[in-house]
Amino acid sequence: MKIAIIGAGSWGTTLANLLAENNPDKEVILWARETEVIDSIENENENELFLPGIKLSENLKSTADLEKAVSDADILVTAIPSQFLREKAKEINKYIKENSIIVNVAKGFEIDTFKRMSEILKEELPPSIKIAVLSGPNHAEEVSRKIPTATVIASTETDLENLRKIFETDYFKVYAHDDVIGLEVCAAVKNITAIATGVIAALGLGDNATGSIITLGLREMVRLGRHLGARQETFYGLAGVGDLVATCTSKLSRNRKAGNLITKGLDAEGIMEAMHGMVAEGIMTSKAVHEYAEKNKLYLPLTAQVYSVLFEKKELNQAITDLKKLI
Predict the structure, then answer these.
(1) Beta strands of the chain (E only): which ranges?
(2) Order of strands, edge to edge, in the sheet holding 2-6?
(3) Which of 25, 27, 136, 203 is most exposed, with minimal Cβ within 10 Å?
């Protein structure tokens, strides 16, 4: 069996290393677009750019050649930013073999279409391809150091028990689920709330306000998810509340960091520049969700205020004042 991981950011590299260590009898290959990442992995057994300080398995190979990575792979893990997934899926389509399994870990909605990541993959890949999604409270910095973590993998198209065994280790517990929509909504929307809690933290507004914002974010997550056809109980599980709390309260969270940067006067473009290649998915997710909510008359006041600050240059203090009036 061959396993390919497409995307060598911190999470893609962490999963690639986990899979290489957990499946020594299988070929595991990581695709990266950055030549410096390939050189670092091949020469130092480390991704110094995105996952410094973590020694990688000798079983893990790397390449910048997408055809080499994808060809003959039985399982592909897509770990690239959500807004680039469709473009990369079109390239993958040239090389992917029939009946292989895609496990997507990208989080967000496509701008303009509001497609979930699994929907994009279905549109761009052959119908024989089986799709699963993986999400949970999973900071790469902790998983890569083998700190105990749990996650959820969901699909209605493939044998989840076999997939679970491929991913699960003594420090990475994997739960199977079948609510793909719910899992994808949780994964995307919690990042918007994390941006808001990053603002709260940077302004020193305290734990009480943080708790209130997390509760409001959960309410909006459930409202959108139910509208899209997800099951409500999914939002109160590991992929919902679990990931929401971890992302909103951890200093490791990129989206929380994006919220910190808002208080320094940066808008969406400025934050993306300041993060030097690290992607805070909640920025573009707030745009996608807000625009969808406006079209479909969904009441999502927290999302609306985050969007206004990031993309309409609304004054932060005014956004906070307006939010308090709206909830």
Answers:
(1) 2-6, 27-31, 60-63, 75-78, 101-104, 130-135, 149-154, 172-177
(2) 60-63, 27-31, 2-6, 75-78, 101-104, 130-135, 149-154, 172-177
(3) 25
| Cβ proximity of 10 and 141 under 8 Å | yes
One fold for 2-178 and 186-326: no
Q: Does this model's pTM top 0.85?
A: yes
The residues spanned by each domain of the chain are 2-178, 186-326
d(CA 1, CA 234): 32
List, for residues 172-187, the tens digit of each pLDDT value. Answer: 999 999 999 999 999 9
The CATH H-level (homologous superfamily) assignment of domain 186-326 is N-(1-d-carboxylethyl)-l-norvaline Dehydrogenase; domain 2 (1.10.1040.10)
Q: Is 314 a catalytic residue?
A: no
Distance CA 97, CA 71 (A): 7
| Strand 130-135, strand 101-104: pairing | parallel
Query: Could you write out the DSSP letters of every residue in 202-254?
Result: HHT-HHHHHHHHHHHHHHHHHHHHHHHT--HHHHTSIIIIIHHHHHHH-TT-H
User: Any idea of the CA torsion for 176, 280, 241, 186, to the nearest 10 degrees?
Assistant: -50
pLDDT single digits (tens) 28-84: 999 999 999 999 999 999 999 999 999 999 999 999 999 999 999 999 999 999 999
- Supply 265's token pair: 């006067």
Report the distance separating Cα 80 and Cα 93, nearest Å.
16
Contact criterion met (CB below 8 Å) for 294 and 286: no
From the list 88, 190, 257, 287, the catalytic residue is 190
CATH class of 2-178: alpha beta
Kindly state the helix (H) or strand (E) to which residue 258 belongs, with its residue range.
helix 254-262
